[in-house]
Amino acid sequence: LRNAHYLKDRLRDAGIGALLNELSSTVVFERPQDEEFVRRWQLACQGNIAHVVVMPNVTIEKLDAFLNELVQKRSSWFPNGKVQTPCIAADIGEENCACIMHND
Predict the structure, then answer these.
(1) Is residue 104 part of a domain?
(2) Alpha-carbon dihedral of residues 57, 61, 63, 64, nearest 10 degrees?
(3) Which domain holds residue 7?
(4) Structural domain contains residue 32
(5) Mean pLDDT (10-residue bins), the chain, 104 residues
(6) Residue 75: inside a domain, yes or no?
(7) What local confidence, expressed as pLDDT, does residue 81 receive?
(8) What DSSP string runs through 6-50?
(9) How far apart are CA 68 and CA 5, in angstroms?
(10) How many domains does the chain have?
(11) Partner of 50 for a Cys bridge, out of 43, 54, 89, 92, CB 3.0 to 4.6 A?
């Protein structure tokens, strides 16, 4: 579970809303807008969210590679590179959402 907590924390540090259910290794976050990225990383998506199950064999290096690519590509999905985090509070709760309305 340590690596799942690591991924959730790194996503939040990057301004991406994320949720890790208690006693779970499934991390839920905003759905990437690039379907090629979704396929490359084999993300499970539904509506505005995606999730990954952080298995024990997934290393910190692999999580960092995923996160670095996500952050890099994410800036290209918005006009002028200005990231506008979507509201996913209905999916993961206001306390986990990083949109402008819920981000303190």
Answers:
(1) no
(2) 180
(3) 2-96
(4) yes
(5) 97 95 94 95 96 96 97 82 82 92 78
(6) yes
(7) 61
(8) HHHHHHHHTT--EEE-TT--EEEEEPPS-HHHHHHTT-EEETTEE
(9) 17
(10) 1
(11) 43
